[in-house]
Amino acid sequence: MSHSSSLYISTRGGIKPLGFSEAVLMGLAEDGGLLLPQIIPDCRNKLAAWSHLSYSDLAFEVMSPYVGAAMPSESLKALIKQSYASFSSPEVVPLVKLDNGLFLAELFHGPTLAFKDVALQFLGNLFAWLLQERGGKLNILGATSGDTGSAAIYGVRGKKNINIFILYPEGRVSALQELQMATVPDANVHCLAIKGSFDDGQRIIKEIFAELDFKKQYSLGAVNSVNWARILAQIVYYFWACFRVQEKYEQPQRFQVAVPTGNFGDIFAGYIAKRMGAPIERLILASNQNDILSRFFNSGEYSRGQVNVTLSPSMDIQVASNFERYLYYRCAEKPAEVSKLMRQFAAEQRLQLPGKDPDFEAGSGNDAETLECIKRYYQNNGYVLDPHSAVGVSVAERFLCQDTPTICLATAHPGKFPEALKTALHDEQIGRHPELEKLKGKPLRKTIIEADKEKVKAFICKTLQQI
User: Fold this and answer.
1) What whole-number distance in Å separates Cα of residue 419 and Cα of residue 405?
2) HSE (side-chain half, CA atoms, 13 Å) at 368
3) Contact of 392 with 152, CB cutoff 8 Å
4) 425-437 b/e with 16+ CB inside 10 Å = b?
5) Tens of pLDDT along 416-443?
6) Helix 453-465 to helix 198-210 angle, to the nearest 10 degrees?
7) What backbone torsions phi and psi does residue 259 show, to the nearest 5 degrees?
8) How far is residue 155's CA from residue 176's CA, in Å, rounded to a whole number?
9) Which of 45, 103, 238, 348 has its C-alpha lying 20 to 30 A from 409's C-alpha?
10) What letter does residue 31 receive in the DSSP assignment?
11) Domains of the chain (ranges plus CATH)?
12) 138-143 and 220-222 as β-strands: parallel, antiparallel, unpaired?
């Protein structure tokens, strides 16, 4: 079989190459690894042609080599256009320049006001298209620390032959994030508030997907960032952001991009964009007090700690589910090495790699720094940052470079985090969003459940039997 970017392999090497459709529906690889394209296409000779395209047309060009023959070009084009028609900005991802020379790529103009919409509007439509072509049903299982859940729900709500089950940590997501998930009235939406942390939810999901007979029997699919299609849709905005800054501000040819991240999915998309040839000099990884990733990129040690509850809850994660994809490249694309390291991490909760990756700088920010950053940018620029974006900006400021402009990903609308804004700015009205205000007072449709794999499985079985 020839090597291709539209064929997918596992980081652990235990499956035969799959086509794009199979990879999307499989989600987590059946050997426990994560799926990656066999090769990453080199697009450096296409940058000039791509730089003037609309967002949807650019998305088509970036995605096409990874989709291959799995989908007719016209169908892919139509699906991409449909996915971004629901965004409130015609640009999909507008760029804003701040006084200190930083640029913000606003990723929160989708229906749930978070960057996850960019990928999950696409993935929801892709699932619907695949089921229409192939027949059958899909039961989506996902864990969320806040924004993935609502974006995934809005991506598939009301869609035929799809049910969605979202696990989130009870009492550990913001009140508005819970309202966005648990007030959706569609009968195919099921919210499970688990008595535990996001890491517990993510572990339960991985354990259930590892039970291949159960996964097959109940046609389970993944919607969190273990699904390659999520990463694929996110690669696009790294190219887009660089092109828009070049076009509007006649900046130099290379950029650094700062990314607030907990699960390593968003920044991994940037890493793939860089490998494809996007004009990115380096990626700046920003974590909050849950700093497993920033510690790794600065010391080479990846070791699990306790989950800290912070003002940026979507990053309150200790085990980053996409990190294994990055390990595959750090291990020179040797699945046996990846498998060995993942076994070691499972046994000892730590692993160590030598050397520093020149593609990354990394830092972490605490709640005090986050609040100070929100306050300062509001006072100096009149711009309201959400707490996650503020973590990214405050870390980016440590690595500013005169010759290489810095683009920060603004990952959520500030109105989703009124408690943090009120603490930083002492004003309850700043940053509010009318769509979020409408949700207040609506009844919640959720089931509180123990963080126990068997109890979650029993809930899925019972629910699907009643449909």
Assistant:
1) 32
2) 0
3) no
4) beeeebbeeeebe
5) 999 999 999 999 899 999 999 999 999 9
6) 70
7) -130, 115
8) 18
9) 45
10) T
11) 95-113+229-433 (3.40.50.1100)
12) parallel
Is this structure's pTM higher than 0.90? yes
What is the per-residue pLDDT across 306-333, written as a single tens digit (0 to 9) for each? 889 899 988 888 889 899 999 999 999 9
Per the document, the length of the chain is 467
Residue type, 13: G
Tell which residue, 148, 419, 393, has the closest CA to residue 309. 419
DSSP code string of 134-176:
H-S-EEEEEE-SSHHHHHHHHHHTT-TTEEEEEEEETTSS-HH
Interatomic CA distance for residues 208 and 203, integer angstroms: 9
Query: Which token pair is 379?
Result: 């006072």
Packing angle of the helix pair 55-67, 228-249 (nearest 10 deg): 140
How far apart, in whole angstroms, are the C-alpha atoms of residue 103 and residue 125? 31
Residue 315's SS3 state is helix
The one-letter amino acid code at 383 reads Y
Active site positions, annotated: 116
Cβ–Cβ < 8 Å for 287, 320: no
Cβ proximity of 183 and 443 under 8 Å:
yes
